[in-house]
Every structure is written in C-alpha cells, then in structure tokens.
Write a structure and sequence with these properties.
This protein has helices spanning 20-39, 45-55, 74-80, 107-128, 149-156, 175-188, 214-222, 235-242, 284-301, 307-310, 323-333, 341-350, 357-366; strands at 4-11, 17-19, 64-66, 135-140, 163-168, 195-201, 226-234, 249-259, 267-271, 276-280, 315-318, 376-383, 387-396. By secondary structure, it is α+β, with helices and mostly antiparallel strands. The protein has a domain at 254-396: Thiolase/Chalcone synthase (Peroxisomal Thiolase, Chain A, domain 1, 3-Layer(aba) Sandwich). A hairpin with a 4-residue loop joins strand 9 and strand 10 (276-280). The longest helix has 22 residues, at 107-128.
Length: 397
C-alpha cells in the first residue's frame, strides 16, 4: 500500500487575536457581575481579581488567543475597560443576567451561533485550494448542526459526488482519528483522490462565566477558538500535485492509540443544558507523565525504530494541553525542549485550540527550513478517556 502524505496546511483566522492580560481582566468583570447577582452576596472586585491572578494562565505562557465570544466587545476590552468601574459596567446582549437563568443562552442558541459564524472557514480554505476533493472530513468538538457546515460547503459548490464524513466530539486529540479515517478512505478508494480535513473549534461559546472555581478559571484562560484545513494525499498523487505546487509534506510512518487505565473520569466533555461542560482533574498531567515514554517506544517499535538511540534527531509536536503538559513530556523523555519549541510557540501565540492545535503545529514544522527532508517527527495528543494518541511522521518534499 502507498504511504499517506499530510500537506496543504492552511490556518484560518475568523476573528482577531486578543491580548491574554485583557481577556483575564475581562473575566474578572464577568465573575464579579455573575457572583454578586447569583449569590446575593457582596463579593469585592479585589477578591475576584486576586482569584483570577492566582489561577488564570498568565501572558507569560499565552500572549494572545482568538475568543470569538468577545468579538463584539473588542473595543470595550481594548480601549474602555481600563477606565470602567466594574460595578457600573452594562453588559452586552447575551452576557447580561436573565431572570430564569444564571448561565446565558441555552445550547440550541449557541449551536445556531456556531453555524452562522463558521461557514467562513470552509469558504476560506477553498480559496487556497479550489479543485474539489474526493472526501471532506469535518472535525469539531464544539458545535454541531445537521446538515453540517461541511455538507453546506459541498452543496454550495455543486460538489454532489464529494463524500462528507463527520469526526466529532473527541476533544484535543481529534485530529488523529480524523487522519486515521482519512487514511482508511484513501486506501479503499479506486481513484486515490484527495481527502480534506477541516477543523472548526469554537470553544469560546462554551466558556462558563459563572463558576467561580480554580479549575474553571484555568479552563477559561487556556482554551481558544481555532480553525485550520489540510489535505491527505496518496503518495503517488502527492508527488504529482504537491511537488508541482512546491509543497512539503509529512509522510505517515506509524500510529498508536491507547486508553489509559483508571482515568475515565479525569477528563470529560459532556453536553449540558446551556453549554458543553468540561472537567479536567489534577491527575491528568501525572497520568501523561507516567505513560508517555512507554507509549512512544511502542509506537516507534512498529517500524523498528529505537527511540532511545534516535530521540535527539527527532522533533516533537506535543499537544499543549497546558504549559505543564509540554514540560512533563519533555522531561520524561529527557529531550531538549527546543525540539518541541513549536508546541510552546503555538500555545503562547494562539492558546489551546483543542483538535485544531496539533495541525497548527504541523503547519509550523512543515514550513520550517531548519527541519530537513527525511527528519522524523513524533506527534502526540490526549483527550477524554483518558486517550493518548500519536503519529510517527517523516518530512518529505
């Protein structure tokens, strides 16, 4: 069977990147408002500020994020907030307290917003690559509609024979099963046409702006919206089309996935009445640290690669579930952190975009002239389950 090549990575910006310090400050406004309204107590803005400063991820680790939920109040956040008394701030529609709800719009309204906002992602991707694929895989864990955005994209372009597959609700590791699915579709195809994978992660629509807890504050300061499209090629088609268009690629050498025992409740992403609900326990980094080396050795063994002797020649695309996650993996593998610097960079400049994050890292790696052809890359991510998944790749051109 021919190898499968990943290429044609195109990150897409729908809104604007907002400064992390400003987002954290606005979170204080929201917390102060909702806590005082909800509890009928007088919680001071000083108390709220100290809480957010203690538990939110600071700009030392994340400088900017795309948070489309705050798009319409960007001017206030950037220019007016500094001179506004929090107790006198009038909230925009959708943020204000509703008599029958402390949680804002119900989930159907949030899904309508997702559908209205994100058709742009498909339109933009197909400005970069106009000819139609054989398959489109739509990846998301943050918004659903039927017909889906992918089906609408096909209908709008009269691509009646393009087949759409949905790869939904797998969280931060979602790119990996989508790539596995795309590889399977290619292997079964008679024509070996292109498979496009498009991620639409609108995580901001699920921010819980009322739960005043350390865990929720960390979550509110970590996740961001992220959008990206890319393509899978059969090896022969890639060398015919990709090279002609001066594109580099990542050849899939091996994949691996396990569900870590006794971790089922440590990371969850459930449907709620008002939004999707996340739990993220303190044990997650510990589970990752304990299992990561064995996991990577098992993946490398699939192609007879001795990880210990080769690890200093390999580069790493580690899903930045948070700053400590990257550190734990780097330290446990005993590798130079510079060999995973794209993970730190993407977290710093865009935040955790769930399933869209690792493809953003791939885009950086594939376009980095310092990484030569035939260099191997190990990609890993984690999600509910607790699921660990990975790819062993090789840069080609």
């Amino acid at each position: 069977m021919n190898a499968i090549i990943l290429s044609n990575f195109h990150p897409i910006l729908v809104g604007k990147l907002i400064n992390q310090d400003l987002i954290n400050q606005y979170t204080k406004f929201l917390y102060h408002f909702f806590q005082n309204t909800k509890s009928n107590k007088n919680i001071s803005f000083k108390e709220v500020s100290e809480h957010v400063d203690k538990y939110a991820i600071s700009s030392a680790n994340i400088e900017k994020r795309q948070v489309l939920l705050f798009d319409e109040i960007e001017t206030f956040i950037a220019k007016e907030m500094v001179n506004t008394d929090p107790s006198k701030y009038i909230f925009p529609k959708g943020f204000e307290f509703l008599e029958d709800s402390h949680y804002g719009p119900k989930i159907e309204m949030r899904m309508d917003w997702f559908k209205t906002k994100l058709g742009h992602v498909f339109n933009k991707f197909y400005e970069y690559i106009a000819n139609k694929p054989e398959h489109i895989i739509h990846v998301t864990c943050s918004g659903y509609s039927s017909p889906s955005l992918a089906q609408e994209a096909v209908i709008n372009r009269d691509w009646n024979d393009v087949k759409v597959t949905h790869s939904y609700h797998m969280g931060c590791y979602g790119a990996f099963p989508a790539i596995r699915t795309g590889s399977g579709l290619l292997s079964l195809s008679d024509t070996k046409g292109r498979v496009d994978i498009i991620h639409t992660e609108l995580l901001s629509v699920h921010l819980n702006l009322t739960e005043f807890s350390a865990a929720n504050t960390m979550i509110c300061s970590l996740f961001s919206d992220g959008f990206i499209g890319y393509s899978l090629y059969d090896e022969n088609l890639f060398y015919k089309e990709g090279i002609k268009n001066n594109r580099a690629g990542l050849k899939i050498l091996a994949s691996h996935e396990v569900i870590i025992p006794d971790s089922l409740e440590d990371m969850t992403w459930d449907l709620g009445e008002y939004s999707f609900l996340m739990t993220l326990s303190k044990r997650v980094p510990v589970f990752i640290r304990k299992n990561i080396k064995e996991f990577i050795i098992a993946m490398c063994n699939k192609i007879g690669l001795d990880f210990e002797s080769e690890k200093e020649s390999i580069y790493y695309a580690i899903h930045p579930g948070g700053p400590k996650i990257i550190d734990y993996v780097v330290n446990e593998l005993n590798i130079d952190s510079n060999r995973a610097h794209w993970s730190y960079d993407i977290l710093k400049h865009k935040g955790n975009m769930s399933s869209a994050t690792v493809p953003h890292i791939f885009q950086k790696i594939i376009n980095d002239p310092e990484i030569k052809v035939n260099t191997k890359i190990i990609a890993i991510a984690f999600g509910p389950g607790l699921t660990a998944t990975g790819l062993l790749l090789e840069k080609i051109a």
